[in-house]
Specification:
- InterPro entries: NAD(P)-bd_dom, NAD(P)-bd_dom_sf, Polyketide_Oxido-like.
- This is 3-beta hydroxysteroid dehydrogenase.
- It comes from Streptomyces venezuelae.
- The protein has five helices and ten strands.
- With 223 residues, it is of the alpha/beta class.
- It has an eight-stranded mixed sheet, with helices on both faces.
Length: 223
């Protein structure tokens, strides 16, 4: 059982991560700006325990207060219609908060939901370099890339960080509990499709929380 501090729990990905972690019996602290927006996990949430606290992933002081005493910090934060560069601000706040906790006991690990833009297409360019990407989406991809660049500059001996990038297509669907792993290339099926349900993406993320298999690295998953 892990004690998890979860940012972004009201979003599409974060809400599924919350349910997946609870169903596996983990203790989750959902750190949200507006607790009223957090959906009720319901009776299918399993044996886990949920605590809801008010906080802001863009505020380093707020983050430091929220993550103390946890085993793993998970960020499923997304800027929505806001400034894409908030992704970099959030990454800096998370790493800074963990560093600020000092050396009294093991520091929390950090697992961040990244973007698909910096993954390489099969035999081709990065996703963000493909033709026809809308400007707003491209800005978000570049911001995810900048956040990943920042994380890659953090020595894993200081903070055990991991970034999980989604495939090209991520949408709500069924939980199968299965997925395939990749590193810096899109994972595609026999027909060249790169996709996964949000539910199985959450499975992969909570698997990483439990296994710590990709410390200091980015990885990706798909069906």
């Amino acid at each position: 059982m892990k004690k998890i501090a979860l940012f972004g729990a009201t979003g599409t990905v974060g809400s599924r991560v919350l349910l997946e972690a609870l169903r596996r019996g983990h203790e989750v602290t959902a750190v949200v700006r507006d607790p009223a927006r957090l959906p009720d996990p319901g009776s299918g949430s399993g044996a886990g325990a949920l605590v809801v606290v008010r906080g802001d992933v863009l505020d380093p002081v707020s983050v430091a207060a929220a993550v103390a005493g946890h085993d793993v910090v998970v960020s499923a934060f997304g800027p929505g219609r806001g400034d894409p560069t908030d992704l970099v601000t959030a990454a800096r706040a998370l790493i800074g908060a963990v560093r600020s906790l000092g050396t009294d006991g093991p520091a929390p690990r950090v697992v961040v939901v990244g973007g698909a833009g910096t993954l390489r297409t099969p035999g081709g360019p990065l996703v963000l370099d493909e033709a026809g990407v809308p400007a707003a989406v491209l800005a978000l991809m570049h911001a995810h890339g900048a956040a990943l660049d920042f994380l890659r500059g953090v020595p894993v001996e200081q903070v055990r960080w991991t970034c999980l990038s989604p495939p090209a297509h991520l949408a709500p669907g069924k939980r199968t509990g299965t997925y395939r792993l990749g590193s810096d290339d899109l994972v595609v099926d026999e027909e060249g499709r790169s996709r996964i349900s949000v539910e199985d993406f959450a499975v992969a993320l909570v698997d990483e929380v439990e296994r710590d298999a990709h410390a200091g690295r980015r990885f990706t998953v798909a069906h």
